[in-house]
Amino acid sequence: MASLRSNRYVNKSISEFQEANRSPIYGYKKQMLVTLEESAEKLHPFVNDIMKYVDDAKQKCNRQINILTWDESAAIYLYTMSTPFFSALNDTLRAEDRYALKPWFPFLKLFLNALEKLPSSATTVWRAVSGDTDNYSLQDDVKIWWSVNSSSTALNVVQIYLGDRGTLFAIETIHGKKIDEYSAFPDEQEVIIMPGTFLKIESEPLNFIDRLLVVHLKEEAIGQQNHETTNLNSSPNANVLLPSLPIENFAFRSSPDVM
Q1: Are the CB atoms for 127 and 158 separated by under 8 Å?
Q2: Which Gene3D superfamilies match (predicted)?
Q3: End-to-end CA distance of the chain
Q4: What's the Rg (C-alpha) of the chain?
Q5: Which of 51, 88, 111, 203 is least enclosed, having the fewest CB within 10 Å?
Q6: Which domains does the chain carry?
Q7: Structure pTM?
Q8: Contacts of 177 (CB under 8 A, 6+ apart)
Q9: CA 230, CA 137: separation in Å to the nearest integer?
Q10: Could you say which DSSP state residue 246 is in?
Q11: Per-residue pLDDT tens digits for 92-122
Q12: What stretch of H or E contains 217?
């Protein structure tokens, strides 16, 4: 089941990653909050046994912390389970036709509402793209990641699925949402990078033995909430690599099969 989880942290290609983050997610905020069961009613065509997964999530999710409702906690748990649910959501988030997301709006409303309730975390997290690194564009100083992007504070969690070459993002986040207390796999130390996050390239990418491109990104707080235009000039430390990058002993390995 590891291959199902890997999709959350490592995209299979640069194009898949860019497609997922290409466009904003419009429309879900107008939805009324509903139960997790109700949010899944229109997802049967996309996820077989969806109600079984929902029932499992409701039974196993963390109900000990009062920050979230039962349904909100279960929505996060469902997102992290080793089921086809995340892959189906990820495929839809990548669709050029944003209307394809409409059946997912009730779940996205519940899920993102839950994440917004959690305290923001300022920490360094990791995310990756496997395969050839040549097609990733670094021409823009500032990127906006429009999708739901999973990352981990533990490099080894991402490393397992990266394979023998790829792009590794070291991200200094200030509004990341730590979900380990609500996850089906708390040891993965997962942090969600929220849709619409501004990320600035902090330094020239590090080419590590021609097999790994390490890109240092830093979340920009300016304009975070309303996407207002702002002057995002280069940082005075733009040529300084993140000093804490623990990649000296990075061990490449064959990645597990990815669905």
Answers
A1: yes
A2: Toxin ADP-ribosyltransferase, Chain A, domain 1
A3: 10
A4: 18
A5: 51
A6: 2-219 (3.90.176.10)
A7: 0.82
A8: 115, 116, 118, 120, 121, 191, 192, 194
A9: 22
A10: -
A11: 888 778 788 999 999 999 999 999 999 999 9
A12: strand 212-219
